[in-house]
Amino acid sequence: MGAERAVRRLGIGMRVVGVLWVVFFAGAFVALATDSPLAHRDNGLGRFVAWGEDGHDYALMLSIIYVVWGVFTWRAARDPLAHRSFLDFTITANYAHIGLMLVLALVRHHEHAHLAGDVAAGFLPPILLSILWWPIRSRVPARL
Q1: Distance between CA atoms of residues 16 and 79, nearest Å
Q2: What is the pLDDT of residue 71?
Q3: Are the CB atoms for 36 and 2 separated by under 8 Å?
Q4: Which residues contact 12 (CB under 8 A, 6 or more apart)?
Q5: Which three-class secondary structure string do you get for 47-77?
Q6: According to a count of CB atoms within 10 Å of the terminal CB, is the N or C end of the chain lower?
C-alpha cells in the first residue's frame, strides 16, 4: 500500500474513533448526569458499563475526558503524521486502560459482565489505530 493511501486510511480511522468516543461518552455523560436508568448497574446496559458500587463521579470524569479525547483525535486526523506523540499516547493509554479493565473484570466476580461489554468494545479503538498506525509509524521522525 502506498504511503499516501496509508496516511489517508489512518486519518479515516482516527475520525471513526473520535466520533465513536464523542458519541458514546457524551451519551454516557448525559445518562450519568441525569441519573438515567440506562446508567444503573442493575439495568440492561448498565450491567455492561457501570463499574463498582459507587463510581458515579469517576464515570462522569472519565466520560468527559473521552469526549475531549475524541474531539482531539478527530482534529489530529487532519494531519496524522504531525501527531506521532499523540497517536502513540492514545494507543498506549487505551491499551493500558482497557488492559486494567480486563484484569479487574476477570478477578472481580461481580464485574464479569464487563468482559462482554465495555472491555470487549474498549479494545476496538486501539486495535484499529494500531493496525493503521504501526506500519507507517517508522517513517515519521520522533519529536516531542
Answers
A1: 15
A2: 98
A3: no
A4: 77
A5: HHHCCCCCCHHHHHHHHHHHHHHHHHHHHHC
A6: C
Contact of 51 with 114, CB cutoff 8 Å: yes
Q: Which residue has the cell 458500587?
A: 53
What is the pLDDT, as a whole number, of residue 99? Answer: 93
Here the cell at position 99 is 488492559
pLDDT digits (tens, 9 = 90+) for 17-44: 999 999 989 998 898 888 887 777 676 5
60 CB burial (10 A radius; 0-12, 13-18, 19+) = middle
What's the pTM value of the predicted model, to 2 decimals? 0.86
d(CA 84, CA 130): 12
> Kindly report the CA angle at 118 between 26 and 43, in degrees rounded to 5?
80
